[in-house]
Amino acid sequence: MTSRLLRVSAIETLSPLVTRFRFEDPEGALLPLFSGGAHVVVEMPDAGVLRRNAYSLISDPMDGSGYEIAVRREDGGRGGSRFMHTKVALGDLMRISAPVNLFSLDLRAKKHVMIAGGIGITPFLAQLKQLARLQMPFELHYAARSRAEAAGLALLPASPQVHVHVSEEGNRMDLGAILGSQPLGTHVYTCGPEGLIEAVAETGARLGWPKTVLHSEVFMAPPPGAPFDVTLAKTGKVVTVGPHQSLLEALEQAEVEVEWMCRGGACGRCETGVHACHGTIEHHDHWLSDDERASQTKIMPCVSRFTGETLVLDL
Amino acid sequence: MTIQFHDETFRDDYTFHNSPEGIRRFPFPFDQDSYMYSVNLEPHAGGKAGSPFEKRFDVDEHYVAEMRDRAITLAEDPLRCQSLPHMELAGWDFLELVMVSKSEDYPELFMLNRDGDRWHWINRPLGIEQRFTFLDATTLPCGPMEYITRQTQGDHALLDQRDGNLWMDAGMVTSQADWSLDFDIGMNFFEWHAPVPKAHELGVFQRALKFLLNLQQGAPSRRLNWTMTVNPRLDTSPENYHKWGPEKRTVAPGNVGAKQYLRVELQTLWRLPRSNAIAFPIRCYLCSLEDLVTVPKWGRRLHRVLRDLPDELAEYKGFAVNRPVILDYLAPFDDGAPTSPGIFPD
């Protein structure tokens, strides 16, 4: 994973829970450009624990002067977003990975329709800038519970193609109406809670949309859970995974080399063989097939957990 | 280092030749005495000084002649260069990658000045000077991919990434080992690799695709591939098989050393920034058997590899018909001595 040390050059509160961070090269060098929908992995050295969280880039993909992300504080999470909100200060140097895109626009589309729920607005902020530069037709729908919580409002351009749906104000998003009136060749992108992604898929299926034009950002943070132990087949070493730690983080802490990239169960890079499993793997990834999951012979340590007696990994 | 560009041909009278330095820097593809398909990818992050691995886009003594040969092929068959409409952004990405790399790696040959989107490009070996607006295709004589690949050795495919697969949606293909862009355009990774024997069963393509989907910007990869070609011909395309296919029958014990070439492809893979596409340059190097055996290690090893190669591979690579003549020629150069690991001469 290539990465660079960047300086925090701006911190801005967007809503009570969401803060924007800007990173620039300390020497003022231009950063590699990227495509809308790309994310970076931010390293956070937090009191002896090295956390790595992925965040979508929200800045202009064609502007190499800096990278920007928007971080929602998740108090029930593993501590990464809390670290960003409480420990990071202007001028700090942080290690940021090269951009990776697992949610890119399909440039064959005749029109792009983007549907965002809550903090799921982030990848679209960069895609909007890319689409404006490419002069492609688009429409964006942004659903939020309340205006106060809608952090994206401050970052969205005032444009007739941008539609904001605030449920508190009785203006709920009507997926049937959105998907029912699009021209042929339209591609739809959804990012937000799992329920929203499922609702778009169901509405699309009902209206006869081909599955291949419905895209979603399946990226997710590793869920917390009960602590568990894993045994490494090569050394016999036992590694304990804490309740707010992912298996990948626990392996890294134990200095076990595992390749990784997205840390969100989407890219497949950290796929690890299971030597023996007496119990149940809680698969949280979007990479393994249903058959692979059922066979319990593979695990994605970035997001998946385990309950049961013993789990022995091919490591 | 000044490169002496050859005035030579890759068709008709075939005046192509390697200089002694050209032979020494040939990317011999076998790192051991046997060969089987593998995902033999490594980082494309420089290499031995003077070798074809050193620079991002290798420019050698054949540059000018190869670009002339490409222009002839394109004039006869414009479909060798195609770009589906959604790939123009990837074309610009690739143009930028090549211009930046070449002007930094060969400042005496190439120059790029950028003032925002206003670019000024000078290609001294080909005598080209162009001012244009980046991302505005109307300011170039042709599309961005065609423009830059008319000035860059090797074939080039631009692969779009979507639906967990790679799609061959643009390319410039005039020096290919018997495959056709016009046939493959729009195909996905498994479809365009369908004709390759054995590798599917080995799971090579599943693993390679997974690797490529995760290819990162700024971390290009490379691998070598190889085949055998009679006469130093770049355009061994299916479209022109009637021109070069019969030449296989002209190989005889008296001329095999001069007529039979080992054809090596240096394939590199680059993640492109704005389009998220992958650029896949396939650079072709040719070396005759009589030039190869001037490096004793290569003579010994090539004999062993070709002798022990499974029949399906010799058939697929198109030299099964001449294998006995080739082996008879190479056998005297193999004294049975052990060879050192790696591809470079001792």
From TrEMBL, chain A:
PANTHER family: CARNITINE MONOOXYGENASE REDUCTASE SUBUNIT, NADH OXIDOREDUCTASE HCR. Residues 1-106 form the FAD-binding FR-type domain. Gene3D superfamilies: 3.10.20.30, Nucleotide-binding domain of ferredoxin-NADP reductase (FNR) module (3.40.50.80), Translation factors (2.40.30.10). Pfam families: DmmA-like_N, FAD_binding_6, Fer2. It comes from Paenirhodobacter ferrireducens. The keyword Oxidoreductase applies. One of its GO terms (molecular function) is metal ion binding. Keywords: 2Fe-2S, Flavoprotein, Iron, Iron-sulfur, Metal-binding, Oxidoreductase. Residues 228-315 form the 2Fe-2S ferredoxin-type domain. This is Oxidoreductase.
From TrEMBL, chain B:
Pfam families: HODM_asu-like. InterPro entries: HODM_asu-like. This is DUF3445 domain-containing protein. It comes from Paenirhodobacter ferrireducens.
